[in-house]
User: Fold this.
Amino acid sequence: MLARMAAARALEIDPGDTQARAALLLLKPVYGNWKEIEAGCRRLLKDHAARSLIQFYLAATLCEVGRWREALPILSDLARREPFWPLVQMRIFCALVSAGRVEEAEELLDATIKKWPRRADFWSMKIYHLLEAGRLPEAVAFASDLAKRPTHADRSIHIQL
Assistant:
């Protein structure tokens, strides 16, 4: 509520405030509002194409409604501009798998794990992906390899084999 009020006040002061417009879009729940969010993001990106957060939110909205193939070029462009934003890589992986490009997705995930070896979310994503694909022996081998486990003390990772 406070964020909405702040954004509304910013628009009263400056009706062209892109950040305030983006904030109001980001505060909307995707479900039931996807057309409005998509249109709002596209409007904002016309004048401010380099706004990474708006671009990500547009792609995320497209993913949420199953438009993976439309989201992929947006995410790929964003990944080139924001190479150190791991959440973009995660979305690309999900979009590739959902679009049926599994081999490409797995290559991306392996490269991402090498790039961010301490990120437990990517490590877990690989295990879950292998399990969902019915590749239990690979999942067990990956989870059993202590060298592949994230090196930080993440207490949320408890895999018993």
Summary: The radius of gyration is 19 Å. The chain has a mean pLDDT of 86. Residues 79 and 88 are 6 Å apart (CA to CA).
